[in-house]
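Pair request: fold both.
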Amino acid sequence: MKISKTPHLRVTLLLALVLGLAVFVVGCKSSPSPGEDGATREESAASETGERAAGAPPAIDPQAMPAQAEDPALKIATFAAGCFWCIEPPFDETPGVKATIVGYTGGAEKLPTYEDVSYGRTGHTEAVRVYYNPDEVSYETLLTVFWRNINPTQKDGQFVDRGRQYRSGIYYHDAEQQRLAEASKAELGASGKFDKPIVTEVEPAGSFWKAEEYHQDFYKKSPRRYKSYRRGSGRDEYIQKTWGD
């Protein structure tokens, strides 16, 4: 069939081509990401935020946490292990751990938000505060839990999450924690288990800002989204390959 070459028809065909190209580009940008349901971690968090906005009370803004536990029988340990959604469960399951709080540390800016931290605007890293009874669980045990849930050779990120906001770190609260953290790092480096240097930072604990409420116990509040993200992150495959757990 011969197509007429009138000006109106040529314009119409050109517009159709442009529209088709635009649809194709948008479709490519919307392709599924690591999770099985196609949702990235940020999209899952954004969806969670939207659902809260539709009917639930707003999340509490990030707040500075006290340097000491309210219960004098408890001590605090602070770790950064990439996505804080994924490091909370292993510590919650550890006997002697009484509570965990996820948040942001390692940056100078006050009142950091998830959006600012996740885009690397503040210098903070996602982290977890572990409240534990030293009569029931040792700091050395907590260090073991930490090491077995990260890739200590990955610089500026953990697994699928890249950037210094996902760097790994141990933030000690006293001289004894510092000694044990540095010794465990040195021991791991000398173990021969890794063919790259251990790059996890060991630094004094600074200000810790509690993350927005919907991030707390995310694996319990949104198990489907959590499991989908975790499966796609590569963390479990690495742990299984490295430790056989």
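--- second member of the pair ---
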Amino acid sequence: MKRTILDAHVHLLMWKQQAEPDWNSVSQTLKVANFNELDAICITEHIEANAYEKLMLGLFCSNRLGGSTQGDGSVICNGVLVLPGAELHLANNMNIGVHADLETLLSLDRRASAYTLDTLHGLLEKRGRPFKLVAHHIFWPGKTCSDLEALKRCINAIEVPAKDLTNIHKYLTLASTLNLDTTGGSDSHSFISIGACKTLINEDNTHSPLTLKKWLHSHHTTHEPDRDSLRLTALARIHRQTDTERREP
């Protein structure tokens, strides 16, 4: 049985306020993903980020990194399959990873709090195209959701986030209660912590590589934290804080 390894929660913009993607930084991040033996990454960039559309169009339409474009709209860059996605801030403040084709993602309202979980799910179902919704770091302070019925109706998986592994039992209990899969995500905003928590997909067909369609229809995914997850996420926080201080006058 083939085991496909991906990071299901990756940002390629350091900050939401960035006007343009830093393509050199994006390329370096993908090289590190390959070095960390990831088969794929999901670009769940904040949809309200200023450069979200430029990033996604550059990756998947203009092919700014000179990757190998796939027939399903994904692209292979530096040996890593790159899949389109978005992170949405919902009306109740929880964060949702939306995994879908690029056209669907670009059709969404990019304003923060534009959707409830039910309205987002209903809109995606109405479009009639495959999609996957993942609850991101749902036990992170201010990002929680107590409506278990809505989660069960709308969510496909519960993320186990690299930045909150001390509370891993909460995520696993919730996934078990709702009978949902888990995914692993680094929530990385730079190359430092990419792959700090991984998603594992076990596939019966060892000759068939992962595609966007297979990812959107995947079941029985699980998570696997990197043995250095705590150190990597700590270093990533320091890196972002240092960048913040550098930007301040």
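Observation on the second member. The mean pLDDT is 94.
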